[in-house]
């Protein structure tokens, strides 16, 4: 999955150790785990585009009120996930 030249990322020892454990449990490497994480997250622009597409599929005009309702729903979801980003 990884492409390009390898690079280094500075992090705490605790984070490195956790990444190592997570990778080991999944039978992968830290690099592949980070690649998977980076590819699984949407940028704000991608989130906005998906929201526009979803509203269009539902026949809704994507107004500020619809946008706020969606953000409020995600905030509630994150709260129930213990603060993890959606």
The low-pLDDT segments are none
Largest sheet: none
Gyration radius, rounded:
17 Å
Shape: elongated
Q: Could you tell me how far the N terminus lies from the C terminus, measured between alpha carbons in angstroms?
A: 22 Å
The percent range for helix content is 55-70%
Structure explained in plain terms:
The protein has 86 residues and is mainly α. It is 65% helix and 0% strand. It contains four helices and no strands. The protein has helices at residues 13-26, 30-40, 44-57, 64-80. The longest helix is centred in the C-terminal third of the chain and has 17 residues, at 64-80. The radius of gyration is 17 Å and the shape is elongated. It starts with 12 loop residues before the first helix and ends in a 6-residue tail after the last helix. The mean pLDDT is 88.
Key phrases:
65% helix, 86 residues
Describe the structure concisely.
65% of the residues lie in helices and 0% in strands.
Layout of helices and strands, plus pairs?
Layout (H helix, E strand, L loop, with lengths): L12 H14 L3 H11 L3 H14 L6 H17 L6
């Amino acid at each position: 999955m990884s492409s390009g030249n390898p690079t280094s990322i500075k992090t705490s020892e605790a984070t490195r150790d956790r990444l190592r454990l997570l990778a080991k449990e999944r039978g992968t490497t830290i690099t592949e785990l980070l690649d998977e994480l980076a590819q699984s997250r949407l940028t704000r622009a991608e989130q906005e585009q998906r929201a526009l597409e979803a509203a269009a599929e539902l026949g809704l005009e994507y107004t500020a009120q619809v946008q706020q309702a969606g953000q409020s729903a995600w905030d509630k979801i994150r709260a129930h996930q213990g603060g993890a980003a959606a």
